[in-house]
Structure formats: C-alpha cells, structure tokens
Amino acid sequence: MNKRIAVLPGDGIGKEVAKGAVEILQAVGERFGHQFSFAYGKIGGESIDEFGTPLPDETIQLCKESDAILLGAVGGPKWDQTPAHIRPEKGLLKLRKDLNLYANLRPTMYYESLADSSPLRKEVIQEVDMLIVRELTGGLYFGKPSERVQHNGEDAVVDTLYYEKAEMYRVIKLAFELARDRNKRVTSIDKANVLESSRMWREIAEEVAKDFPDVKLDHMLVDNAAMQMVMNPKRFDVVVTENMFGDILSDEASVLTGSLGMLPSASLSENGPFLYEPIHGSAPDIAGKNMANPLAMILSAAMMLRVSFGLEEEANEVERAVNQVLDAGIRTSDIASFGSPHTSTSKMIDEVKAVL
Amino acid sequence: MNKRIAVLPGDGIGKEVAKGAVEILQAVGERFGHQFSFAYGKIGGESIDEFGTPLPDETIQLCKESDAILLGAVGGPKWDQTPAHIRPEKGLLKLRKDLNLYANLRPTMYYESLADSSPLRKEVIQEVDMLIVRELTGGLYFGKPSERVQHNGEDAVVDTLYYEKAEMYRVIKLAFELARDRNKRVTSIDKANVLESSRMWREIAEEVAKDFPDVKLDHMLVDNAAMQMVMNPKRFDVVVTENMFGDILSDEASVLTGSLGMLPSASLSENGPFLYEPIHGSAPDIAGKNMANPLAMILSAAMMLRVSFGLEEEANEVERAVNQVLDAGIRTSDIASFGSPHTSTSKMIDEVKAVL
Ligand SMILES: CC(C)[C@H](C(=O)O)[C@@H](O)C(=O)O
Ligand SMILES: CC(C)[C@H](C(=O)O)[C@@H](O)C(=O)O
After folding, report:
1. What are phi and psi of B331, to 5 degrees?
2. What pLDDT is stored for residue A338 in this prediction?
3. Distance (Å) from the C-alpha of residue B227 to the closest C-alpha of chain A?
4. Boundary residue ending a domain (B257, B281, B300)
5. pTM exceeding 0.90
6. R_g (Cα) of chain A, nearest Å
7. Closest protein CA for atom 11 of ligand 2
8. Site: Important for catalysis. Where (chains A, B) (predicted)?
9. Residue B26 belongs to what domain range?
10. Which of A32, A84, A283, B158 is deepest in the core (most CB within 10 A)?
C-alpha cells in the first residue's frame, strides 16, 4: 500500500510525539511492506512566528492532497498575548472547519497495567470501554456573533451556540453506526432542560434511533453525565454530544486511564482526509525535555492505520506493542507511580519499536 | 431571633427532604430560643398541575416577603411532555432570575466517614475543601435568542451566551471575598482559547484581583478543570465560573464526597432573601419511597443559619450532628456500601435530631 501522510507537529511536545508516530509508522511500513511517505506542514505558534498566521494556505493544501493527517499539538505561553484571531488554537479550529472534520472520536479504555495511575478505584474503571463522539465543527466554537457589544450603554459580550439540523444529524448517525460494531448502546448527552439547541439535538437523536432498531439510545443531561463519567463509567458504550460538552467530558474521561498522555483521537469528515491527534495539548512546562508520553500520538497513528487505511492487522500490532511495553513496566513520568523510575520520550518510542 | 422562612418543597424527593430541614430548624429554634416560622409555596411540576405555571406570582411574593428560602427540588417524567416554557425547571430558573440570585455557592468537602463511598481513592480526596462559586443568572441559561431558526432554507437552532461586564464582575468579586476567609486562592475557569465571553471573563478576573493583593488568582481552561477536579481536587480552594460550566463542574465535584445526596448549596443576591437548596434533583426513581438522603437539604439549612441569619454556632451544631450520625455508621442507601444495611429518610432525620 502506498500512502501519503501529512505531518503537522505543531508546538511544544507536539514535535517530540509526532516524531514517535512517524518512526512507528515507518517501522510498520517496513514490516508489512507499505510505502508511507511523510510531508511536513506548519501550524499553530510556529506558523505564527514564520508566516504571521496559525494556518498558512500551504498547510491546508498539503492536508487536502494527503491520505491522512497526523497532528501533534498547538499553543504555548509565547503566543498568549497575540490578538485573538491569530492564536495558535485558531489554526487547529480553522483546519477542522476547512476540512469539515465534523466528528471527533475519542476512545477511552482500561489498561490493566495502568490501573494504579488513575485516581479512581480499580473496581470503578475495570473493563471500561467507552467511545466519545464529539461534534467538532459547530456550536459555540464557530457561532456568530462572538464579540464584545454594548447593551443599554453597558459593556457586554456574546457568543453563539448555533447548529443546523444536518450538522447534528450526521454526527449522531455516525455514533449509531459505530455503536453497531460495539455494544449497541448510544448515550446522547445534552442540556435539554435549559437549551433549545439541546431539545433539537434530542429530537434528532430520537429520529436517527428509528433507523437503528438494534441500538439502544438513552439521553443524559450534561451535568449528570459529568458525574456518571467518573461514578459509573462502565455504563457507557458510545457517547455522542455537541462540541463544547464533548470537549469537557472527553478531557474528564481521561482520568479513567490515568493520563491524557495515553489518549488518541480521530477526526472524521465525509470524504476524508481524516485527522489524527492526541487529546493532550502542547504541554509547555515539559516541552523540549524529552519527558512527554508519546503513546497517545502513537495510538493515534494506530487509529489512522485502522480507520483511514483499513489496515486492521497493522493497527492491532501497534496497539499490542504499546501494551507489551506497558506490561513490561516501562513508563513515562505521567503514568509512573510517584517516585518510581521512568523513561524518556525517545526511549519509550524505541521500546515500542523494538517489540513491533 | 425571629425569622420567616419560605419553604418550597417542589417535586419528588424534594418534599421528603424539605420536611427534614424544617424539622431540624424547629429543633434548633427550640434549643437556642429562636422563632422560625415557615410559609409554604408551590413551584415546579406540582405548581403546573395546580396553576398551569411552574412559578405562580404568589410564590414569588411569598419569597420576597421572607428572610430566606428553602427549596427541595423540581421536575419529573410526568412533565416531560409539557411545552418548553412550562417545564418545572423553568420555575426554578425564573425564581433565580426574579430574585436576582446571581451567585450559587457549592461547597464540597471531605467526610472521613464516607471515604469509601467515593469512586476516588482516599489519597485523592482526603482533606479536599473546595467551594465552587457558580454564576447563576446569566450566560446560555438566559441569553436571547434561544430558538429554532431557518438559515438558507435549513432548519437550525440558536442559543445565546450573553453576559454584561457587571454580571461577571460581581460574582468574581464575591469569590475573592469568600477566598479571603478561606485559603486565599481563587481559580477562575473559562474557555478563553475559544470564547470571547471567556476572554472578557479572564480580563475581569485580573481586574478584580488587583483589589485583593492577598488572594492568589489562577486561570484554568474548563476542559482541563474537568480533569483536575478529579485528578487533583486538593489544588482547589475557591473556584469561580460562569453558569453552564459551573453546572457541569459542580455536579462532577459531587463524586469527591461520593453522593449528590450530601451536597448543599446557597444562592445569593445583592440584598436577599437568599435561597438554599440541595444540589440533587427530584430523583423520580426513588420519590415517595422514604429512601432519599435528607442530609444535603439539612446541610443547606445549616448554610442558611450561617449565611442568612449569622447564626454560626447553630450552623456548626447542625453540621456536627450530621457528622456524628455519619460517624456512627448510619447511612441512607446512596452512601451505604453496596449490600450493607441502610436507613430511611425519616429515620435519618430523626437520628440527626436526636443528637442535636
Ligand atoms: C486547543 C483547543 C481549541 C481544543 C478544543 O477546545 O477543541 C482542545 O481543547 C481539544 O479538545 O482539541
Ligand atoms: C434543574 C436545572 C435547570 C438546574 C440547572 O441546570 O441549573 C440544576 O441542574 C441545578 O444545577 O440546579
């Protein structure tokens, strides 16, 4: 197989972990006889420094011409004072929008070998296997107006939660399709007792459910969900929700595994290319220190193999290698028990490669 | 002391727990020589059934003429099909707005005797003492428009996150004032990398901080906060945030204590009367079964004694009595270990009264 992969390392630890994913993909290519070529593009703070914009046209072009995209992370304190429209994060948001990446898939699973690094009791997280499907190109993130206003002579501000019915429909439908291949349960999360958008969301979920008689739908209010996510995470199979709720709940769900450094994600559009990125950010405090956990990025690459390229066996191999390394007790500092020995980013990458 | 208290039991377990708070307040009155009189009003589903509206004018009037308000809970499946504007929850939202209850205080603390009922490890929750201050009368809850719209011939929907500067200012200032009497740290939570309203919020927090040189302010993104709340809850002292984020995070924080059934709240306005309610809802599944945990409501009454009436000693006594009962191993089912014996709502009320 011949595939071209756009690599956007971005800022901070993004660079360090992206390197890991590329090396692992190269190793997979060699072992299984695939040709993966990598084309690098700039995004985020690095791009602001060079081009004055967090997402240059060349990068968008590069992504559109590729079969899939790997992204590290964007942002850092260096760009905290730049005007709002040229923040590093705007590059990521614009890329999601330009490529129409409407669904962000965030799987959370239980790693027996990491049970001790979660703040939750083992009984609570054991066997957790949840997939959060977050709407990614609508809602408060993109609604207009989003600006300062004057109201009766008072300083005020407005953001807008806007959704078209079709935007809700497609992401909810995708969640049902994914549930079909899993445990056949969809939990739709909203705030229907307060928001009109949530009432529409709930109606559409009911409408979609009619086409999936084999999948069980239930509704949960977002405040309750934030509690259930840690109180009783095993009750969830596929979770689907709008952009902002999904942002909050999926970061919260990272405590189930014990570290953001373990969690991959895939962002899907209707016709591709898809984008794969770890859930964690650019982690300025540890950037450049060879300390970051590269596994979220490596597991994102595994998702790419499976979802974009249909390479199930290859994806399984990467995941198996990651598990083998974890079972051997090898840890970056984020997943090591306090005070116990831990390894570096580059060493962790080498360890995974070695057992691949 | 002579005080008139409006009691709005509402729906479901609201009635059962409100009864408990009233009995405890009566006992406190007798013991300390205060005259508490109770005036009952209707709100929520019960009020819809009787008056066709979730908040009749008489109830608003009653509240305005009282020194403080006790509220049970509103809502239930019976009213799920009523039109959006006459839902039980609308009664509560309207009451908050009409009485200008702009700040909702939600303390979360560690109960040694309940450590086993939390899904979190004891090391994580030990000594947690956090106060969430949630803005309660603005943001997505009240912004207009909040309606279905047509856009280029497509069905769409819009909700509005609107804040005036003064609304942000007063609640953030209150958080700093409260921090002064605690550990002198305020964590302000927003989504400043995406929302214009959050950028304004952050600016105002910085502005307020200048008047409180003795209090340390830090900012945290809401997604990160949802993680830190369970990963490292001890890092928080006072947390302040806007309405929707506060709704989500404060329900999440209930896992630290192990049950929503333990958590009280106070809602403050500029000139009173203040409203006291448990964080939990009407819990239709256990309503009428004499199973609900009355402690959140009883602890809300303790907050009333302290905050509205300045009766510090009396408030401490109620809290001490609750702790004594818990230390004696008496439990309603929500805080009992699985399969172990538990008591009823009315018995729990009696137990607290007995040690008062
Ligand atoms: C960086 C930020 C804009 C982004 C988001 O809020 O979507 C991040 O938190 C994420 O979840 O990918
Ligand atoms: C009942 C509902 C409208 C309410 C809210 O969202 O504010 C509740 O969840 C709360 O937190 O008091």
Report:
1. -140, 140
2. 67
3. 4
4. B257
5. yes
6. 20
7. B247
8. 141, 191
9. 1-106+260-356
10. A283
